[in-house]
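Postdoc handover notes: sequence design on the structure in folder B. Input tokens:
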């Protein structure tokens, strides 16, 4: 005959239910809401649709006036040539004049910037200006403002959707419901110009155009928010 206490213990073990998966995390009684801080980043790619080239005219002379006159003539010729090329926007800036101490001469320089969506035409123009004595400062692929703005908006939308999905998944794990977002912050910084590969075209002409190969631009956006969860 079994002892009464031992018999009760055996009965308890026999009636115990099989092991189950751990339940969702229990929330304290009286909990009104839980705040969840989240952040998500998304990116989209776009093919560059604009080329930007900056060239510089530079001259040295015994006087400041002579150096500046030489630069002024070079920049005026470059602007006239650029304005005659359809689809090319031209601007000037970065004027500098100073004394070259080692030779006691004066040096002057000024930059001219070309911008356009027709890559071959702009590169051909840049090669012509190089042949006229201007030095290439930078040559970049970039996105037009409207193209970049649309890409940033799409990246922000994708990041926000990802954040909402993640918040809903966490809420389910906590046995709560997602009721909304607070303090939503969208950070979609503007991109700078993206340098492109350049090489000189083999030619006997001194005005050979530079060669460039573009690379897709990546536009990112980050969304941060406080998700409100309730039972």
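Designed sequence:
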């Amino acid at each position: 005959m079994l002892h009464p206490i031992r018999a009760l213990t055996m009965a308890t073990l026999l009636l115990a239910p099989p092991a189950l998966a751990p339940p969702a995390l229990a929330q304290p009684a009286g909990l009104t809401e839980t705040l969840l801080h989240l952040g998500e980043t998304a990116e989209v790619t776009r093919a560059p649709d604009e080329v930007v080239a900056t060239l510089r005219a530079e001259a040295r002379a015994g006087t400041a006036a002579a150096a500046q006159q030489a630069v002024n003539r070079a920049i005026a010729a470059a602007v006239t040539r650029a304005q005659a090329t359809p689809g090319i926007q031209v601007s000037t800036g970065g004027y500098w004049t100073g004394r070259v101490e080692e030779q006691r001469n004066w040096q002057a320089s000024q930059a001219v910037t070309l911008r356009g969506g027709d890559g071959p035409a702009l590169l051909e123009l840049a090669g012509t200006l190089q042949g006229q004595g201007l030095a290439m400062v930078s040559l970049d692929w970039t996105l037009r403002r409207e193209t970049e703005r649309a890409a940033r908006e799409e990246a922000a939308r994708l990041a926000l959707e990802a954040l909402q999905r993640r918040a809903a998944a966490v809420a389910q794990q906590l046995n709560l419901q997602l009721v909304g977002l607070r303090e939503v912050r969208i950070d979609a910084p503007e991109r700078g110009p993206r340098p492109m590969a350049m090489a000189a075209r083999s030619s006997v002409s001194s005005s050979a155009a530079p060669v460039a190969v573009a690379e897709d631009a990546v536009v990112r956006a980050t969304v941060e928010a406080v998700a409100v969860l309730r039972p």
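Context for whoever picks this up: The chain has two domains: 30-49+143-201+208-231, 50-142. Don't rerun without checking with the PI first.
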